[in-house]
Design a protein that fits this description.
By secondary structure, the protein is mainly α. It has a single domain, classed as Arp2/3 complex 21 kDa subunit ARPC3. The chain contains 8 helices and no strands. Helix 1 runs parallel beside helix 5 and helix 3 packs antiparallel against helix 4. The chain is globular, with a radius of gyration of 18 Å.
Length: about 250
C-alpha cells in the first residue's frame, strides 16, 4: 500500500532531480561559453548513448558486494557509477545527472524499492555528488590532467556529502521507517567494525560511512580514468579523444 512517507520521499526525489539537473545544465552552458563552443547539451547521439549507459548502470546497480568493515544490511558496494562517470566525461554533467536518474528508475523496474525510495534517493544524490563536480571540472578544460583532478574532487565531494547525508537524513530516516532505535542501527555497525561503539553515530559515520564512500569513489575513479581514453571515441563517434590532450 502506498503510504504518505512514500509520497514525501518521491516529492523530495523529484525536487532533488530538478535542482541538480538545472545546476548541471547551467554549469555545462558556462563551460561551453568559456570554451567558445556552441554545442547542444543534448543531441540524438547523446540521448542514445545516455539510454545505453543508464541501462548498463542499472544492471551493475543490482550486483552488490559487501565490504568487511560495513554492515551488509545497510551498505553494499556497486559499480554503477563507472559507466555513468565515463558517460559524464563524454557527454557533460547534465547528461550525468540524467543518467543517474534513469539508472535508479530502471533499477526500480528490475527490483522494486524495499525502502520506500529512500535508498534510491540516497544512491542518486550521492552518485551525483561524485559525477557532477568531476564532469563539470573536466567540461571546462578537457585534458587528462583535468580529468584526474576532477575525479579526485568528485571522490572527496562524495565522501563528505555521503557522510553528511547519511548522518543527517538517511540513517535517521531508516530508523524511523523500520521502527528501529538509532542505537540499533549503530549497533549493527559496531558488530561489523570494532572501531565503532554501540551508541556513537559519529564513529559510525567516521569509520564506516566515510571509508565506504571513499573506497567506492577510488574504485570508480581509477577504472574511469584508465578506461575513458579508449571508450570516448566510441561514445562520441568521430570526435577527438579529448582526454588524451596534454
Amino acid at each position: 500500500m502506498f503510504k504518505l512517507e512514500n509520497l514525501s520521499t518521491l516529492l523530495s526525489f523529484a525536487a532533488t532531480i530538478l535542482i541538480l539537473f538545472v545546476v548541471a545544465y547551467v554549469l555545462e552552458k558556462l563551460a561551453a561559453g568559456k570554451n567558445e563552443k556552441k554545442e547542444k547539451v543534448f543531441t540524438v547521439r547523446k540521448i542514445a548513448g545516455i539510454g545505453i549507459i543508464s541501462a548498463m548502470a542499472a544492471v551493475l546497480m543490482l550486483l552488490e558486494v559487501p565490504l568487511f568493515f560495513a554492515p551488509a544490511d545497510i551498505y553494499k558496494l556497486d559499480f554503477s557509477e563507472i559507466p555513468i562517470l565515463i558517460g559524464s566525461f563524454a557527454y557533460g554533467p547534465a547528461a550525468g545527472v540524467m543518467m543517474e536518474f534513469i539508472k535508479v528508475a530502471l533499477k526500480c523496474l528490475f527490483k522494486p524499492s524495499s525502502t520506500a525510495f529512500v535508498g534510491e534517493l540516497a544512491n542518486f544524490a550521492v552518485g551525483c555528488s561524485l559525477v557532477l563536480p568531476a564532469s563539470t571540472i573536466y567540461c571546462f578544460k578537457k585534458t587528462k590532467k583535468n580529468a584526474i583532478f576532477g575525479t579526485i574532487v568528485g571522490i572527496l565531494c562524495m565522501t563528505v556529502f555521503g557522510s553528511a547525508f547519511n548522518a543527517v537524513y538517511l540513517i535517521p530516516t531508516f530508523a524511523k521507517m523500520f521502527h528501529m532505535d538509532l542505537e540499533a542501527i549503530i549497533g549493527m555497525g559496531a558488530g561489523s567494525n570494532k572501531l565503532v561503539s554501540g551508541n556513537s553515530l559519529t564513529e559510525f559515520i567516521l569509520f564506516i560511512t566515510a571509508p565506504f564512500n571513499l573506497v567506492k569513489g577510488l574504485i570508480v575513479g581509477v577504472i574511469t580514468v584508465l578506461l575513458y581514453k579508449y571508450i570516448s571515441s566510441i561514445l562520441k563517434g568521430n570526435e577527438s579523444k579529448e582526454i588524451a590532450k596534454p
